[in-house]
From TrEMBL:
Official protein name in the record: Uncharacterized protein
Organism: Orenia metallireducens
Highest taxon in the source lineage: Bacteria
């Protein structure tokens, strides 16, 4: 994932209400690894499937 993609997701999180979650569903490691390295994974709810979130 490029820095532009990470930035887009981060800005999406900033735009939603404070009590709302931005959920990343089915994200692959090539997307999750940069988020974890930059510690941005703490800003999102990360689930493997929609069923896990519901």
């Amino acid at each position: 994932m490029s820095i532009r993609g990470i930035r887009t997701i981060f800005f999406a999180k900033e735009k939603v209400a404070v009590s709302s979650d931005v959920v990343l569903v089915g994200a692959q490691n090539k997307m999750l690894d940069p988020l974890k390295l930059s510690e941005l994974d703490n800003f999102f709810v990360i689930k493997e499937s929609e069923e896990q979130y519901n």
